[in-house]
Amino acid sequence: MVYHNLKALIKGIRACKTVADERALIQQESAAIRASFREEDSFARHNNIAKLLYIHMLGSPAHFGQIECLKLVASPRFSDKRLGYLGIMLLLDEKQEVLTLVTNSLKNDMNHSNMYAVGLALCTFANIASEEMSRDLANEIEKLLGSSNTYIRKKAALCALRVIKKVPDLTDHFTVKAKNLLTDRNHGVLLSAITLATEMVQADPTVLEEFRNAVPLLVRNLKSLVTTGYSPEHDVSGITDPFLQVKILHLLRLLGKEDSRASDTMNDILAQVATNTDSSKNVGNSILYETVLCVLDIEADSGLRVMAINILGKFLSNKDNNIRYVALNTLNKVVSIDTNAVQRHRNIILDCLRDGDISIRRRALELSYALINEQNVRILIRELLAFLEVADDDFKLGLTTQICLAAERFAPNKRWHIDTVLRVLKLAGNFVREEILSAFIRLVAHTPELQAYTASKLYTALTSDISQESLTLAAAWVMGEYSDSVVEGGLVDEEQPKPITDKEILDLLLSILDSPYANYLSRQYVLASITKISSRSTTSVAQQDRIVEVLAQYTSTPELELQQRAIEFASLFNLGQLREGVLERMPPPELKATVMGVVSENKPVGSSSGGDLLGSDDISSPITNGPTTGTQQDLLADIFGSSGQASSPASTGTASPPPTAPSPAPVSAASPPPPTMSSNPLSAFSLPQSQSPAPTPAAPPASRLTSYTAYEKNTLKITLTPQTSAAKPGIVMILARFQVSGGAPATGLTFQAAVPKSQQLQMLPMSNPDVAPGTVETQQMRVIAPVGSPVRLRLRIAYSLNGEAVQDQVDFAGFPPGLTGGA
């Protein structure tokens, strides 16, 4: 059965009872349409294309109708053109060769006397134009931008937007016409023109400067929208054309960025928009949010910035979760710009921690981390500990890390610091990083006046809960070291000490060994702990014999690490006085800041690989900091050539500015994630030693060190100052200094280095990638080389000077011989 029009076809398809019937009907109708096309029946073509487009919408093949659509477009009747262009937009895309046949039809219709025919051509162009078609019809589009018809101007502006996206080189082609359109009074034309201007400004910095002259005009347009009375044509929930207001604010944000003159021009209107816009409805909130983004991006005065942050604070009390999420996300970005203004909304941010939406809790948590300082550390840590009690497991690892890092940095006293970490260990001891536990042990070792107090608190906590792994490990270590202080002074309480015996301490530690929560690491700690306790003067002979029996039991355990420790510890009991020296209290390890990364609970915060970069005797793997343009192998091949050459390097280093962190400690921007607590089988008593850093060498007086110029071009000078130690031959510390002799700064400096295969290189981040005239930026490097071998470097330097990108590469072998020791 042949269906003569679209309505009949739709009725027939709906009457099908099965998918198979529908498929058969569509195939039959497609065959009939093909046959009709071959007959070249111009009257039936319109109906056939309409039916074919419906078939295409149902997902069946309709590509055989592409040429027929072109024939419809060539028809003088408007209805045929409309259907033909619709078919072209649906059946063609910019990658098909048939598209070249459409260009001429589009050009003819763009010059048509009927504005609606012109509109059809423009609409089709905006949807399917390819790069080639954009170049061919750019002049036609430019001409239509000056049309007297607002309907055509509006569509032509959107077509110009398509041209710029496909061919950015043609941006200058439309600059003058786009600026003229900004004076248009028609809201539709103005909306299209601002969209076009926004794209041009983002695509070409030179156009940005030209459009900055239009800031007063945009301010005037925005003011008229804000102050105008009720306009039924453009009113949305009581606000005049919010879409146009948001577009203007977005363009002003781009034009005012890093330009104080343009920013001054728009300050007043931004304040007016912020104060006069109704925030009770979502339409007003969208305008206020765009206003806030504009204020925070331009060179606004401080009062306006505070007003913007206050608007975000008001958003936080909104019932709509989307608005609160947007406010928290934006505050996270601006907290580093004006922390004090954000601090005023601290209470409502903390209230968001109790929100039912997990994404809001997560954003509020990240913002809370950034707000902690010396003045509010007690309040915020108390709130974070309260949240830790009820937080999901996904939050706990980041929470425990950030709480302990904040306590380490801002603690008012050591007693409060220890109490805070103890509370964390009790609440979420299974979610504590190894670095945090190591830092806590260092803290206790360096606080002799609180060692008995800490041991007492850990004993009490462990008595009530032995399921928290980090609490168990910390208690085992501290009890092993300071059990005699607890036995002599009793359990320290708020009122008076409570007596305790060595048997009670030993009973608690031994209960861990048989606990269902114990793992091989906690058993290792306990064995080391009881061995330490056995050498204390407060331990009775009976308890020493008990310890010997326990060690004897573990000498035959199937766990190799435990067996080895038990045998070694048991053998100490046969060494007499030597045992006392081996098991005496450890000297306090060197105190250092815990290595930290980006303040975010989603990202690794602690890492043991970055802190020992300077001064450790261990040779670490090569470190690459900052973004690289390819893989490490690509960089090596690029710098040193083929891998078959004898001078192929063993390591490279690239440094970028360190991520924002609440600690001055050096951190590797690409450090590997830290291992979990149970992954390290080291003894509890070697833990602090393994974490203690070698001191970062301070720069000696210039008179004792010699600097060597490695690079001096384009006003940028780089000198390398080596420093060696007779106690560590083969290790060379190199301080790179970056200076600019001209009047222009060198910005975005990237400093890469590589050494031959026989050597290794490690780098800390650069102090600042932007080198201003009169300042000296520095970067530390360490080269590990065979003793007696010369130090050779291949350097790649990339930077921008006066807006021009510069990239250079040099080989440096100017260090004196014998730098690595030896002969």
From TrEMBL:
Compartment(s) where it occurs, according to its Swiss-Prot or TrEMBL record: Cytoplasmic vesicle membrane; Golgi apparatus
Pro residues: compositionally biased ranges: 656-676
Compositional bias of kind Polar residues: 622-634
Entry-linked Gene3D superfamilies: 2.60.40.1230, Leucine-rich Repeat Variant
Keywords of this entry: Cytoplasmic vesicle, Golgi apparatus, Membrane, Protein transport, Transport
SUPFAM superfamilies listed in its UniProt record: ARM repeat, Clathrin adaptor appendage domain
PANTHER family to which the protein is assigned, alphabetical: ADAPTIN, ALPHA/GAMMA/EPSILON
Family to which the UniProt record says this protein belongs: Belongs to the adaptor complexes large subunit family.
Name this protein carries in UniProt: AP-1 complex subunit gamma
Source organism of this protein record: Rhodocollybia butyracea
